[in-house]
């Protein structure tokens, strides 16, 4: 199975190379050259498997070179979850939640980032690579912590994380500042997530920096969803949710289901698109955004335009204007036109916008429905949903519930809303939404949410206050390269 760059289809690598490399040398993203299929018979077989076996089966279609090791890799990775890694919760007929936040850092990023270190070290073994891998991460809050936990003390790897100063929740910042492990480093940067992501992307495509790092024995890779190894584990949970609907007697195999996905960098929802292309019966993909609604506008008008105000919202992991993975979708709907995709990405970089054709827009609107929620509306959703069902949503999941409601209206379409974070992770906004006062201390706030909702507070969040803050530095945007080089130099 080969992978090609979205910006140059003649640039062809193996899955192992795509994972070790992260981003293609031309700045494009790796995509599978052909889409593997999952037959109805195979779908049926999935209903008999547990989550790690389902994941190993789906991922094996894309990474045949790791096929034999995948079952044990998935076993180990998903043993770090509290129970079923991807339980489906029925709220009412035709309305389900897929909870993806039962991993070590309580956000859905764990679904991929507990497994990525195994995929990466396995890929290096396949390729006979012995250099150290430096994982560089730009995070809007959740990826950073999940990558740090995933890669912490994994042999042959180091992990450096940059997050926007003041752009993450207090708990997210706590989680990252107190990270344990001998092979990790964390820094805040002045600027927003897009600044952090751009700065990190620039390092990936800077040969001078790469050469310097190589001289210290380091190869760069990425744990952001630009890395194929981040995306591929995410495809599995859509098949898993479907298998649970079938085995629970909620639908018959072959029935179509819609998914509503809280979207930032477009990785999660893109994984659902790939699942659909592989043969999962998907009726519609609901792309849910917060006030940073570049994607809602794109799906409405065909114009992708990032020249607008950036909002800090109560769903910070979706505070993104440039959704990296949209490039992969753009490549697909252009009929896999690499030159056109490259041109559009140039345009985006130079002018902050590009336009899709009418044909592409009409194809997009057959597959996607897009909607967005302001912070006010999101809080209302949290409060109403809690009152009606007793279920407490985090703000990201609430954005998706609201979009799901907007999509189905009164119709009887089974819809699964993807829940991406534990409400404890965004405790301040959640307490505010349900109309209770918010204690100043983060830990008191956590306990209060536990009292109010009877949802058990995870131990790893409770203990945060007692941990040493190891990483409290802030750098300017232009200082990122030096931080990375110095880190490598010190360890060479
Ligand atoms: C990362 C994240 C998202 C957005 O996912 P993308 O794959 O970037 O679109 C949504 N919710 C939470 C809680 C997240 O951590």
Number of strands: 16
Structural class: alpha/beta
Number of helices: 22
The main pleated sheet reads as: 6 strands, mixed
Short description:
Strands 4-5-15-10-11-14 form a six-stranded mixed β-sheet, sandwiched between helices. The relative contact order is 0.14.
Description of the molecule:
The chain has 492 residues and is an alpha/beta fold. It has helices at residues 15-21, 40-46, 51-62, 70-78, 110-113, 116-127, 142-151, 170-177, 193-204, 207-215, 228-247, 267-277, 294-301, 326-333, 338-351, 358-367, 375-389, 395-408, 427-433, 442-453, 459-462, 480-491, and strands at residues 2-5, 8-14, 30-32, 88-92, 95-99, 132-138, 157-164, 184-189, 218-222, 257-262, 282-289, 303-305, 353-355, 368-372, 415-419, 474-475. α1 (15-21) crosses α6 (116-127). The two termini are 35 Å apart. The model has no long low-confidence stretch (mean pLDDT 95). The structure holds pyridoxal-5'-phosphate. Residues 107-109, 142, 225, 262-268, 317-318, 396, 420-421 line the site of pyridoxal-5'-phosphate. The site of pyridoxal-5'-phosphate has 17 residues, from α12.
């Amino acid at each position: 199975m080969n992978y090609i760059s979205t910006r140059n289809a003649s640039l062809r690598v193996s899955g192992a190379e795509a994972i070790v490399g992260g981003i293609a040398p031309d700045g494009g993203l790796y995509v599978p050259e052909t889409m593997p299929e999952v037959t109805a018979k195979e779908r049926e077989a999935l209903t008999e498997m547990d989550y790690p076996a389902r994941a190993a089966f789906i991922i094996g279609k894309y990474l045949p070179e790791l096929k034999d090791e995948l079952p044990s890799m998935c076993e180990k990775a998903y043993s770090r979850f509290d129970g079923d890694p991807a339980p489906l919760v029925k709220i009412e007929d035709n309305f389900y939640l897929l909870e993806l936040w039962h991993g070590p850092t309580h956000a859905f990023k764990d679904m991929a980032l507990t497994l990525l270190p195994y995929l990466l070290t396995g890929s290096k073994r396949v390729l006979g690579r012995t250099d150290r891998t430096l994982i560089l991460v730009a995070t809007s809050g959740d990826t950073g912590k999940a990558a740090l936990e995933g890669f912490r003390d994994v042999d042959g790897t180091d992990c450096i994380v940059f997050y926007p100063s003041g752009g993450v929740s207090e708990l997210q910042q706590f989680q990252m500042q107190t990270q344990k492990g001998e092979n990790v480093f964390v820094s805040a940067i002045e600027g927003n997530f897009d600044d952090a992501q751009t700065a990190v992307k620039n390092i990936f495509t800077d040969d001078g920096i790469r050469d310097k790092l190589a001289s210290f024995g380091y190869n760069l890779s990425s744990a952001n969803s630009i890395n194929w190894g981040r995306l591929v584990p995410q495809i599995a949970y859509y098949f898993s949710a479907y298998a649970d609907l079938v085995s629970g007697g909620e639908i018959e195999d072959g029935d179509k289901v819609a998914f509503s996905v809280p979207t930032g960098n477009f990785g999660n929802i893109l994984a659902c698109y790939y699942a659909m292309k592989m043969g999962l019966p998907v009726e519609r993909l609901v792309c849910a955004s917060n006030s940073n609604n570049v994607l809602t506008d794109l799906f409405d008008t065909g114009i992708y335009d990032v020249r607008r105000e950036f909002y800090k919202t109560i769903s910070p992991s979706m505070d993104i204007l440039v959704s990296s993975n949209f490039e992969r979708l753009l490549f697909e709907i252009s009929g896999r036109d690499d030159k056109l995709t490259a041109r559009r990405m140039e345009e985006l970089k130079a002018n902050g916008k590009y336009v899709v054709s009418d044909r592409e827009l009409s194809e997009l609107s057959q597959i996607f429905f897009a909607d967005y929620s302001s912070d006010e509306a999101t809080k209302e959703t949290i409060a109403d949903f809690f009152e009606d069902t007793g279920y407490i949503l985090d703000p990201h999941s609430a954005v998706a519930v609201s979009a799901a409601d907007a999509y189905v209206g009164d119709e009887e379409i089974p819809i699964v809303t993807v829940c991406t974070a534990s409400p404890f992770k965004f405790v301040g906004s959640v307490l505010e939404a349900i109309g209770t006062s918010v204690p100043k201390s983060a830990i008191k706030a956590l306990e209060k949410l536990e009292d109010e909702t009877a949802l058990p507070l995870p131990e790893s969040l409770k203990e945060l206050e007692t941990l040493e803050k190891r990483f409290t530095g802030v750098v300017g945007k232009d200082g990122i390269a030096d931080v990375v080089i110095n880190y490598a130099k010190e360890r060479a």
